[in-house]
């Protein structure tokens, strides 16, 4: 009904009916019991704040099973203080970041419910791969350019081969028939991925063929110019997708009408807009803290585990860091919602290749770290073959368990290749 200073509006209306309309407001009496409620308003508000905090923590943290891994974050800090083991700190940091990254994506989705589709799309672009971006910027500040390049490349390879392969395989096993998806959307997505491959290929070829006007400087200038073009291309892609979705929504509303069924399809947010913003800051800050421990212990963890840094950067970091996306893509494929699975896997690859990588080049430009798009021929060739293979398998708009198994086997070949890859540039640095 609503209230005014703790007094029921219905009670006020009943009392006004018994009074003369001309009676002054100052002569209207408020009962003593209700006046005492006004005195307890501060205590009542404090109780509400505490109740909302508990409810918010329960929804954001305690409702997700993946939050069981959150204690590994503090354990990483304690291990760094108490033990001289980079491998242990690296492992705990990696496990601690995993639930934070998943909850960050959930909070972004909640905030998008209040901002509308346009701003929501921008938020998804910004925070969808926020974990990779934070880790990359931290690594750039320490001069670990190759780790940044390889970890971002590994995220693309993991999404296109492992995530998509597991989704296709699980969907084919459970549904037991060929699944279909929107082939037109896939063509646009892979067109952008090929544009990203072109942006990475030309600096590598220019440097490898020794045809630069200024050795080392020309590839850097080309990388920075190409990065700006790629960011503009990604912005155009977002605008195109949002306008296309709005047009589809408008045409659907005209056909169906604004009835109750169309309104029921809209999911209500579970937390408020203010809570979403606060959680975004908290989770981003905590990820940033753990990223320092993760980046600072990569080399030590490589020595202790006797694993190449290239394997850790390209295979291990993306597999663990994208575990939540892997589970989501498989879950939607099992429910025969393959378009959403493609949106998770391919959409994330587009974000990294067309947004995160160029943004890291621009950020490195600003902080004086000369990151470029020359990922070296071995890494660039891996990406090129992956995009061509996945585009070929998806050209007819169908999937089955065999296609998924092929993608998984291809990822195993890539993983074995990087385990035996001697990154001489990283060794020299």
Task: Jot down its keywords.
single chain; 429 residues; mainly alpha; two-stranded antiparallel sheet; 18 helices; 78% helix; 2% strand; disordered N terminus
Give a description of the structure.
- The chain has 18 helices and 4 strands.
- The chain is mainly alpha-helical and 429 residues long.
- The strands form 2 sheets. A two-stranded antiparallel ribbon has the order 1-2. A two-stranded antiparallel sheet has the order 3-4.
- Strand 1 and strand 2 form a beta hairpin.
- Helix 5 runs antiparallel to helix 11, helix 6 runs parallel beside helix 15 and helix 9 runs antiparallel to helix 15.
- The longest helix has 42 residues.
- The radius of gyration is 27 Å and the shape is globular.
- The N terminus is likely disordered.
Topology:
Layout: E1 3-4, E2 7-8, H1 9-18, H2 32-39, H3 41-62, H4 72-82, H5 86-127, H6 130-141, H7 145-175, E3 179-180, H8 183-208, H9 217-256, H10 260-264, H11 273-296, H12 298-305, H13 309-321, H14 323-334, H15 338-367, H16 376-393, E4 398-399, H17 401-419, H18 424-428
Antiparallel strand pairs: 1-2, 3-4
Helix pairs in contact: 4-5, 5-9, 5-11, 5-12, 6-7, 6-11, 6-15, 7-13, 7-14, 7-15, 7-16, 7-17, 8-9, 8-15, 8-16, 9-15, 14-15, 16-17
Tally of individual helices? 18
| Helix-and-strand structural type | mainly alpha
How widely separated are the two ends? 69 Å
Largest sheet: 2 strands, antiparallel
Mean pLDDT over the full residue set:
78
Helix content: over 70%
Globally, the shape reads: globular
| Percent of sequence in beta strands | under 5%
Topology, number of strands: 4
Q: Nearest-angstrom radius of gyration?
A: 27 Å
Strand order of the largest sheet: 1-2
- Oligomeric state of the chains present here: single chain
Stretches where pLDDT is under 50 for at least 5 consecutive residues are 1-42, 258-266
Order of helices and strands: EEHHHHHHHEHHHHHHHHHEHH
């Amino acid at each position: 009904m609503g209230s005014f200073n703790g007094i029921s509006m219905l009670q006020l209306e009943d009392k006004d009916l018994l009074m003369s309309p001309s009676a002054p407001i100052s002569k209207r009496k408020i009962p003593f019991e209700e006046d005492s409620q006004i005195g307890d308003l501060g205590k009542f508000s404090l109780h509400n704040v505490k109740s909302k905090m508990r409810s918010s923590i329960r929804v954001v943290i305690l409702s997700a099973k993946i939050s069981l891994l959150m204690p590994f974050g503090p354990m990483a800090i304690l291990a760094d203080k108490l033990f001289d083991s980079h491998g242990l700190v690296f492992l705990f940091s990696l496990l601690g970041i995993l639930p934070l990254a998943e909850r960050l994506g959930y909070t972004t989705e909640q905030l998008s419910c209040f901002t509308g589709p346009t701003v929501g799309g921008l938020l998804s672009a910004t925070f969808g791969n926020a974990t990779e971006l934070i880790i990359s910027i931290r690594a750039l500040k320490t001069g670990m350019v190759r780790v940044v390049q390889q970890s971002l490349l590994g995220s693309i390879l993991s999404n296109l081969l492992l995530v998509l392969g597991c989704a296709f395989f699980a969907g084919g096993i459970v549904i037991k028939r060929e699944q279909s998806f929107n082939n037109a959307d896939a063509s646009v997505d892979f067109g952008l991925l090929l544009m990203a491959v072109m942006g990475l290929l030309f600096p590598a070829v220019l440097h490898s063929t020794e045809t630069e006007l200024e050795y080392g400087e020309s590839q850097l200038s080309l990388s920075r110019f190409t990065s700006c073009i790629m960011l503009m291309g990604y912005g155009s892609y977002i605008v195109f997708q949002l306008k296309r979705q709005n047009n589809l929504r408008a045409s659907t509303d005209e056909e169906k009408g604004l009835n109750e069924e169309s309104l029921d399809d809209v999911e209500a947010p579970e937390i408020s807009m203010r809570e979403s913003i606060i959680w975004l800051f908290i989770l981003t800050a905590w990820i940033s803290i753990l990223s320092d421990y993760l980046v600072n212990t990569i080399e030590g963890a490589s020595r202790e585990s006797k694993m190449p840094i290239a394997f850790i950067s390209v295979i291990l970091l993306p597999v663990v860091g994208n575990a939540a996306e892997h589970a989501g893509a498989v879950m939607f494929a099992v429910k025969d919602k393959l378009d959403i699975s493609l949106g998770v896997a391919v959409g994330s690859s587009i974000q990294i290749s067309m947004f995160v990588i160029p943004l890291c080049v621009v950020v490195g430009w600003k902080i004086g770290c000369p990151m470029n798009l020359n990922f070296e021929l071995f890494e660039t060739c891996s990406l090129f073959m992956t995009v061509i293979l996945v585009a070929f398998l998806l050209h007819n708009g169908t999937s089955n368990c065999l296609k998924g198994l092929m993608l998984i086997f291809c990822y195993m070949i890539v993983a074995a290749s990087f385990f035996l890859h001697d990154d001489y540039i990283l060794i020299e640095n």
